[in-house]
Each structure stands twice: as C-alpha cells, then as structure tokens.
Design a protein that fits this description.
With about 325 residues, this protein is of the alpha+beta class. It is built from nine helices and eleven strands. The chain has two domains: about 180 residues, Archaeosine Trna-guanine Transglycosylase, Chain: A, domain 4 (Roll), CATH 2.30.130; about 120 residues, no CATH class. Strands 1, 2, 3, 4, 5, 6 and 7 form a seven-stranded mixed sheet that branches. The chain is elongated and about 70 Å long.
Length: about 325
C-alpha cells in the first residue's frame, strides 16, 4: 500500500494540533489549484514538519481532492482549514501567493485553492513526533509517495500507528487498521475514508457538476448539498444520500414540502399552498425530472428517496 508524506505549513499544523489531538476531517489546502493530487482514497497522508523540526507530526486518510474558492472551503471545513477564522486563512493564503507568485482561477475568474481533504486526522504532541524518513531529500518541495510495506515507509507507518493507539481513547485507531488495536498491525490495508459534513458537501457539489439538480442553477454561492435521509437519522454522509439544490428548495426538501421520487421526478406538496397560501414559483417544477450525476455510483439511492417520500414528504 502506498502512502504520501507531504511538507506541511507550520501555522496550519500548530493551529490544529493546539486545538485537539484528532479531527474528523481537515483540509490540507494548497494556495493554487494548478496542481491536483491523485492519491488513492483511504491512503495515509503524513504531515512532514519542515526544518528545524524534520519530523512526522501526524497523519490522516486521504478522502478526495477538490478545487474550491477559499470562501467555500471555509464554509465546508471551518477551523479544519487550520485557521481560527476566514480572515486569518485568507491573509495566510494571500501572503503565500504573493511570496510565490501563485494564483488559481476558475473560468469565471474567481481564485481557487487546491483542497486535499483528509478524514480521521491525528496530530501528535511534540514528544511523540516520528523521525522523518532517512531518505527524505531537500529537493522534496511538496510531497512524496512511499511504499508502506517496506523500508522507511513501513517504519513511519507503524510508528505513527503506535502513537495513535497510545492516544486512545481520544483516537479510534481501528479507523486506520481495520482491526482491534490490541493486535499487531500486520500488512497495511486501505480503509474506506469516512466522509464528514464538509467532504459530503464538496463531493455532492462536484458530482452534480455545480448545478442545482432541480433548476440547473450554476451560481456556486446559491447551491447547497441536501441529505436525502438526515445524518441524525442514521444515514451516512455518502454521495448517494445527497442532492444539490438551491437553498430555498433545500429548505423545502428538508421540511417535506418538496421531494424526489425513486423515478427521479420532483414533486411539490399541495400542503405548501394549504399551509402558506403560496407556492406558485414551485408548482411549475412539479413532475420534472431532476438532473443527477452520470455515474450510477453517485446517483441518489432509490431506497433513500423512497424513505424521504414516506417519512418526510407532506401529502
């Protein structure tokens, strides 16, 4: 199994490690969206602290890569971006861009950042930092892949796991090993990364091509990811449990005045007019096919849509 070791911005690491030992999800962002990251979901991603520290300070599991405007990254991950507020993040981003003459832009001209989204991130106190690979070269300016089954890659992985287990109960090490932490680790295995709320929003936004599934609206600030079945009702933050909607439609969907049938048709409840004596903007959408991702693996689960029809939609 391959993992990645990446140079890590000191302020990003110090902020997150000072807040708590483990994070459900963090955004390891880069100041430009020019370079993507093609890691394998579930692969470990290690935080290499630069000189004079020269150590591995923690790790997370790679979830996905996305190109996002900085304001959306903040809305999705908040302090998980490694800053106390958006202003601090924005100032750091601009300083790095000026220093390195970098910028990333959408076709419309809005600056974007590269977002390496990690789940189950662990941050070690300085006494538990792991020695960096002996073969780490000065020329490694960004990140480097390592085979975690042999040599320095295996050593770093096993030492990081030992420290993660030692931090229990703050850290659930079974998220990384797939087995009880009292057993030896054996060969590394890929684990399916758990999507948090922020990664869910990013995944759904990208899957739907940044367009409202009901209206086709493409204005990114006017789009929200809706859960078909709420996470609070036992559903996962999975793409198949999501729809991308305008905020007004999302609120109607959450409150049961709008639903999507398993046949992918939008239905508007008669209760909208009965309860509010209105709805003329929405009733013309009744019966329309909604737009869904091309990939069947990303389309809404018919069973979850049926659940929403039966338990949320107001008839």
């Amino acid at each position: 199994m391959q993992g990645w070791i990446s140079n890590t911005h000191q302020d990003w690491f110090d902020f997150l490690s000072s807040r708590r030992t483990s994070w459900e999800e963090v955004n390891f962002w880069t100041p430009s969206d020019y370079f993507g990251f093609n890691g394998i979901p579930g692969a470990p991603f290690f935080f290499r602290l630069k000189s004079p520290r020269n150590a591995i300070g923690g790790f997370g599991l790679f979830s996905r890569f996305a190109r996002l405007p900085d304001w959306l990254a903040w809305e999705c991950f908040g302090e998980g971006n490694g800053a106390p507020d958006f202003s601090s993040m924005h100032q750091r981003l601009n300083a790095i861009r000026r220093q390195n003459q970098l910028r990333g832009r959408t076709p419309g001209g809005e600056p974007q950042i590269g977002c390496i989204i990690l789940s189950d991130a662990v941050f070690f106190p300085s006494a538990l930092w792991v020695r960096q690979p002996a073969d780490w070269g000065r020329q490694n300016l960004r990140y480097k892949g390592y085979d975690l089954t042999v040599g320095e890659g295996r050593r770093v992985w096993e030492e990081c796991l030992e420290r993660a287990v030692g931090l229990q109960p703050a850290v659930d090490a079974t998220a990384f090993t797939g087995r009880s932490p009292v057993r030896r680790y054996g060969e590394p295995v890929l684990m399916r990364p758990r999507l948090g709320q922020g990664a869910f929003r990013v995944a759904v936004t990208d899957a739907y091509g940044r367009a409202c599934s009901a209206t086709g609206e493409h204005s990114l600030p006017a789009l929200e990811a809706a859960h078909v079945r709420p996470h609070s009702r036992g559903a996962a933050h999975g793409i198949q449990n999501g729809l991308l909607l305008r905020p007004d439609l999302r609120r109607l969907f959450d409150r049961g005045y709008v639903t999507v049938t398993p046949e992918l048709r939008l239905e508007v409840s008669r209760r909208l007019k009965e309860d509010y004596d209105n709805g003329r903007t929405y009733y013309p959408l009744h019966g329309h096919l909604v737009r869904v991702p091309r990939s069947r693996a990303e389309q809404p689960d018919p069973e979850l849509l049926h659940w929403h029809n039966e338990h949320v939609f107001r008839t």
